[in-house]
C-alpha cells in the first residue's frame, strides 16, 4: 500500500510539473486549446484542410507560403482571432489595407475554399482562426517540412484592428532590434525571430520588398554591402532601378518551393533576399548569428524548433469558450456582408513582407 501511495504521489507531482511547463510555454489560455477539440464534432477537419491545400498547390506552388504568412499576420494583431480575414464594412476597417498586407497578402480565396468544404462537412463548427493554424501546418508538411500537433479551439474575433496592423507587423526594411521588439511585444523571443523567419525558405518576394538594397542602400548611393555580388547582379536585372517594383523572385534561391534549412545556409553566403533576413547573420555581435549557424548545420534542429515556435505563436491571445464567434464566412462577421469581392482578393500578389510569403 505504501508503495502504491508513493507511486501515486510521484505521478501526481510529475503531472503537476508537466502542467507548469505547459503553462510557461503556451500561457494560461492554452488549456482551452487542445489537439482533440474537433474530434467529436468535425473529426476530419485536418484532412479537409490538407486536401484543399493539395488541390490549390497544383496550380499555385507558392500558396503554402502565402497561407502561413496569413497566420503570422493574423496572430501579430489582436492575437490569433482571424481578424486579418475580415473585409471592409461600414463598421470595420480591414487589416488587409495595412502596408504589410495591401497588394501583398494572398491566399484568401483558398481560405474561403477550405471554409466552404468544412461547412459542408460540419456546419458552424470550425473557426476561421483555426483554419489558418491548420493550414500553416499542412502547408509546411506538404512542402517537406516538419509536422506538429496543432492546438485548436480558437474562436473568431468580431472586429479588425487596422491601426494595430500598421504598427505591429514586422517590416522587411526594419532593423533587427525593431523586429525583435515586435516579437517580444507578443510574447515571443529572439530565438523565435530566427526560427519563424525560416518560413522564408519557400515562397516569393516582390521587388518592392528588397529593392532598397540594390542601388542606394540607406542613402549611401551604393548597394547593401551584405548582399552577395552575384545575387545582386541577378536582382538588379529582375528589379531595375526605375521599375514598377511588382516583379517577384524566390525568397530561397536554391530550393524555392521546399521547406528546408537552406534559408540559413543562404544567409551564411549573404544570399538572404530581404534586409530583415540577412541582418540575422550580418548584424555584428548579434546573438542571432549562432542560432543561424546551428540551424544551417542541423536541419532536424530547425524543424523541431520551428514546430515549437509555431505552437507558441498560435497561442497568442486566442479567443476561446464563449468569446467571439464561429464565422460562417471568414470575410465577414456573422450577420454582416463582406464589401470586398472574391475576385479582387484573388488578384492580390506578393508585396511588403514580414515573416513568410510571399
TrEMBL record:
Heme b binds at residue 200. Disulfide bonds join 42-122, 75-80, 128-330, 207-239. Its EC number is 1.11.1.7. It catalyses: 2 a phenolic donor + H2O2 = 2 a phenolic radical donor + 2 H2O. Ca(2+) 2 binds at residues 201, 252, 255, 260. InterPro entries: Haem_peroxidase (IPR002016), Haem_peroxidase_sf (IPR010255), Peroxidase_pln (IPR000823), Peroxidases_AS (IPR019794), Peroxidases_heam-ligand_BS (IPR019793), Secretory_peroxidase (IPR033905). Gene3D superfamilies: 1.10.520.10, Peroxidase, domain 2. GO terms for cellular component: extracellular region. It is found in: Secreted. Residues 32-334 form the Plant heme peroxidase family profile domain. The active site is at 73 (proton acceptor). The keyword Secreted applies. One of its GO terms (biological process) is hydrogen peroxide catabolic process. SUPFAM superfamilies: Heme-dependent peroxidases (SSF48113). Substrate binds at residue 170. The record marks 69 as: Transition state stabilizer. Binds 2 calcium ions per subunit. Binds 1 heme b (iron(II)-protoporphyrin IX) group per subunit. Keywords: Calcium, Disulfide bond, Glycoprotein, Heme, Hydrogen peroxide, Iron, Metal-binding, Oxidoreductase, Peroxidase, Secreted, Signal. Residues 1-31 form the signal peptide. Ca(2+) 1 binds at residues 74, 77, 79, 81, 83, 95. It holds the Pfam family peroxidase. CDD domains: secretory_peroxidase (cd00693). One of its GO terms (molecular function) is lactoperoxidase activity. Belongs to the peroxidase family. Ascorbate peroxidase subfamily. Removal of H(2)O(2), oxidation of toxic reductants, biosynthesis and degradation of lignin, suberization, auxin catabolism, response to environmental stresses such as wounding, pathogen attack and oxidative stress. These functions might be dependent on each isozyme/isoform in each plant tissue. This is Peroxidase. It comes from Armoracia rusticana (Horseradish). The gene is HRP_4663.
Amino acid at each position: 500500500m505504501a508503495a502504491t501511495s508513493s507511486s501515486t504521489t510521484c505521478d501526481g507531482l510529475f503531472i503537476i510539473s508537466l502542467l507548469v511547463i505547459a503553462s510557461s510555454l503556451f500561457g494560461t489560455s492554452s488549456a482551452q486549446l487542445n489537439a482533440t477539440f474537433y474530434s467529436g464534432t468535425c473529426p476530419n477537419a485536418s484532412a479537409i484542410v490538407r486536401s484543399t491545400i493539395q488541390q490549390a498547390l497544383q496550380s499555385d506552388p507558392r500558396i503554402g507560403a502565402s497561407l502561413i504568412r496569413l497566420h503570422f499576420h493574423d496572430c501579430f494583431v489582436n492575437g490569433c482571432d482571424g481578424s486579418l480575414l475580415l473585409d471592409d464594412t461600414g463598421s470595420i476597417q480591414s487589416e488587409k489595407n495595412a502596408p504589410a498586407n495591401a497588394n501583398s497578402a494572398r491566399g484568401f480565396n483558398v481560405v474561403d475554399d477550405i471554409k466552404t468544404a468544412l461547412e459542408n462537412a460540419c456546419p458552424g463548427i470550425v473557426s476561421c482562426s483555426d483554419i489558418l493554424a491548420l493550414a500553416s501546418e499542412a502547408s509546411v508538411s506538404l512542402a517537406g517540412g516538419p509536422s506538429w500537433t496543432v492546438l485548436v479551439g480558437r474562436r473568431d474575433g468580431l472586429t479588425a484592428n487596422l491601426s494595430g496592423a500598421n504598427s505591429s507587423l514586422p517590416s522587411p526594411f526594419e532593423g533587427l532590434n525593431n523586429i525583435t521588439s515586435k516579437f517580444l511585444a507578443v510574447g515571443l523571443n529572439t530565438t523565435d525571430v530566427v526560427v519563424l523567419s525560416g518560413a522564408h525558405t519557400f515562397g516569393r518576394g516582390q521587388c518592392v520588398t528588397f529593392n532598397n538594397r540594390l542601388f542606394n542602400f540607406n542613402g549611401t548611393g551604393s548597394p547593401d554591402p551584405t548582399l552577395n555580388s552575384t545575387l545582386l547582379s541577378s536582382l538588379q536585372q529582375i528589379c531595375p532601378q526605375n521599375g514598377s517594383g511588382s516583379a517577384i523572385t524566390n525568397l530561397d534561391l536554391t530550393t524555392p518551393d521546399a521547406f528546408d534549412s537552406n534559408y540559413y545556409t543562404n544567409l551564411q553566403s549573404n544570399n538572404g533576399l530581404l534586409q530583415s533576413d540577412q541582418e540575422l547573420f550580418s548584424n555584428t555581435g548579434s546573438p542571432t548569428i549562432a542560432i543561424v549557424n546551428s540551424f544551417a548545420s542541423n536541419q532536424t534542429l530547425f524543424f523541431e524548433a520551428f514546430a515549437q515556435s509555431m505552437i507558441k505563436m498560435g497561442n497568442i491571445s486566442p479567443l476561446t469558450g464563449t468569446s467571439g464567434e464561429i464565422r460562417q464566412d471568414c470575410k465577414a462577421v456573422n450577420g454582416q456582408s463582406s464589401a470586398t469581392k472574391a475576385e479582387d482578393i484573388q488578384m492580390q500578389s506578393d508585396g511588403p513582407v514580414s515573416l513568410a510569403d510571399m
